[in-house]
Amino acid sequence: MLQSTLFKKIELCELKKIVIFGVGLIGGSVALALKKADASVQIVGMGRSQQSLQTALDLGVIDVASLDIATALKDADIVLISAPVAQTTSILSAIKPHLNSNTVVTDAGSTKGDVLVCAKQILGNQFSQFVGGHPIAGAEKSGVTAAMADLFVGKNVVLTPSPETSAQALACVNSLWKTCGAKVSQMSAETHDGIFASVSHLPHLLAFALVEDIASRPNASELFSFAASGFRDFTRIAGSHPEMWRDISLANKNALLNELTAYQAELSILKKLIENEDSHGLEALFERASVARNAWAKSKS
Amino acid sequence: MLQSTLFKKIELCELKKIVIFGVGLIGGSVALALKKADASVQIVGMGRSQQSLQTALDLGVIDVASLDIATALKDADIVLISAPVAQTTSILSAIKPHLNSNTVVTDAGSTKGDVLVCAKQILGNQFSQFVGGHPIAGAEKSGVTAAMADLFVGKNVVLTPSPETSAQALACVNSLWKTCGAKVSQMSAETHDGIFASVSHLPHLLAFALVEDIASRPNASELFSFAASGFRDFTRIAGSHPEMWRDISLANKNALLNELTAYQAELSILKKLIENEDSHGLEALFERASVARNAWAKSKS
Q1: If you placed Cys at B23, which of A265, B27, B36, B93 could pair as Cys (CB 3.0 to 4.6 Å)?
Q2: Distance CA B169, CA B182 (A)
Q3: Pairing assessment for the beta strands A78-81 and A104-107 based on DSSP bridges
Q4: CB pairs under 8 A between A and B
Q5: Percentages helix, strand, coil for chain B, rounded to the nearest 5?
Q6: Superfamily of the domain at A2-187
Q7: What is the model's pLDDT at position B12?
C-alpha cells in the first residue's frame, strides 16, 4: 500500500504547531484529539466569528485565537481548513502570501475535485504542499461545543493526493488523521466525488426532494400528521444545513447529475414492475435490496 | 365529529370475546392491551403456524388457540384479521359461512381500498359488519414475542368505513382501538391509500430503489464501505419485509404510481437547478425542506 511505503521512506512528521481555520465540530475535534495525543502541540485557531474562537479558547480546545495570518502561519507545520467549504477559496488566498515552503495545507470538505482545482489555481507553485482530505464523521450537533477527542476513532478519512502532491505533505496529513484514530485511505479526487455522490450526496437530495414534494401540497399538514417512524428516519438528512448542501450539489455537479439520472432510471424500472403487476419481479428487487441493506448494516455494527 | 355522535347514539360495545387471526406483533399487542384493560375478555388466537400460537398461549397473550373456525366464531363480538395481507381473502372466505349477524370483522392491513373490495365481494350481504382499519404502529421486531400492551398508546389508527358500514360495527372497532390507547380517525379508503402512498409507501420504494441502484454496481462493496450514518437512517426501511412490500405495492398500485410520477417530476426540477447552477433556487428548496422536516419532527416529539 502507498501509505506504508511512504512511512518507510519518510519519518513521521513531527507536529509542533497546527493552524485550524474554522474551529467547529470537525476542527475542534481534531484539536482535542491532537491535544490528547500530545499536549505540547500548539493549536492556533482562526475564524470569522470572534465569539466562537473565544468559546474554543475558554473550552481549552485551542491555545491561541489568532487574528493575524502572518503570525499564525509562522513555523506552522500544518494548516487545516475546516471552515464551511464556500470559504475555502478566500482562506487559501489569504494564506498564500504567508505560506512557508515546509507548511502543509489540507482541508476537510465533502467534495474534493473542486477544492483541488481551486488550490492549484491559488497556491500555484506551492500546490504540491496541499493535500485534499475528507473525514467521514459527523454528529447531530455542530459547533465547537459539540467537539470531542474521539470523534474520528475508527472513522474513515479519505485523502485525495494529485500527481503533484509531495510525498512529505501526504505523509504529514496521513499522520495527522492517524493520530486522531481514523482509518485513512487514498484515492483520486474524481473517484472520491463519484463514491460520495452515490452513498451520501444522492440520498441527501432524495430526502430533500421527498419533503419538498409533500410540503408543497395543499394537504401537507394532513399528510405530515400521519407520517411515522419510517418517514422520520428516511428524512432525517433532509433536516441538514441548506447552505452546505447547496455548495456540495454545485461542487459535485457532474457526478450528482449522473447519480440522479441513474436513480430516475431505477425508479422507472420499479414503476414498470408495478404497472405490469409483476409480483415476482417486485419481490425479487425488494429481496435483493433488503438483503444488501441488512448485510451492510451488520458489517458496520 | 362522527365518532362522538356515534357514541351518543350507541352504547359502547361490550367486548366479551375476540378472535384474532394472526397473533404476531399487531394481533398480540391488541390482545395484551385488551387483557390489561379487562382481564375477563376471552381472546381466541387463530393462525397458520401451530408453533407461534403455542408461543402466544405460553406467553399468556391468548386464552385459547383454536383450530376450528365455527367454534372460534361462536359468540365472538369481534374478529380481528392481523395476518399478512395476502391471507386476507382466504381468511374472509373461511369466516363467512360461520359469521353471526352480530359479529364485527375488522383488519389491520396497510392498504384499505383493496381490502374493502375483497370484503364486499366475499361477505356479500354481511359487508356492513366489516370495518377496514390500519394501526400506524410497528417496531423493529416482529412476531408475538415482540408484542406489548402499550404498542398503540398515542398512536394513530385509521378506520375506513364505507357508506354501507353499520354504525354499530364502526363504534365497536372504534372502541376496540380506544381501549388500546390509540388516537382513532376516520376517512375513506381512497383518502387513506393516497395519504399512505405518499408518507409511507413512496419512501419505502425510494429506499429499496437506492439500495438496489448501489448494490447492482460493479464497485458496490467499495461504495458500501464508505456509506455512513446518513445512509444508515435513509435506508433503514429498505431492510423491510420484501413480501409485505410486494403486496402493498400491488394493493396500492394506482396511488403509488401517481406518487412515483410526482416524485420523478420533483427530481427533474432538482436536476434542472443543479444543471443551471441555480444557487439561490437550490438553497431555497433545501431551506423549505429542512424547515418543514424539522418542524414536523418537533411536532412529533
Answers
A1: B27
A2: 18
A3: parallel
A4: 273
A5: 60, 10, 30
A6: NAD(P)-binding Rossmann-like Domain (3.40.50.720)
A7: 54
Got the DSSP string for A52-105? HHHHHHHTTS-SEE-S-HHHHHTT-SEEEE-S-GGGHHHHHHHHGGG--TT-EE
How is chain B split into domains, by residue range?
A: 2-187, 192-300
Q: Which CATH superfamily is domain B192-300 in?
A: 6-phosphogluconate dehydrogenase C-terminal like domain (1.10.3660.10)
Chain centroid to CA A242: how far?
16
Find residue A44's DSSP bridge partners.
Answer: A19, A64
- Sort out which chain B residues have CB atoms less than 8 A from A142's CB and list them: none
Cβ-proximal residues to B101 (8 Å cutoff; 6+ apart), any chain: B126, B129
Partners of B282 on chain A (C-beta within 8 Å) are 245-246, 249-250
Global ipTM: 0.90
Q: Do A158 and B213 touch (CB under 8 A)?
A: no
Residues B21-64: pLDDT tens digits? 999 999 999 999 999 999 899 999 998 888 889 999 999 999 99
Would you call B213 and A266 a contact, using CB atoms and an 8 Å cutoff? yes
Mutate to test the interface with A, among B208, B248, B254 (most CBs of A within 10 A): B208
Average pLDDT of the residues in B196-224: 97
Q: Is the pLDDT of residue B220 over 80?
A: yes
Minimal CA separation from B178 to chain A, in Å:
17
| Residues B234, A203: C-beta atoms closer than 8 Å | yes
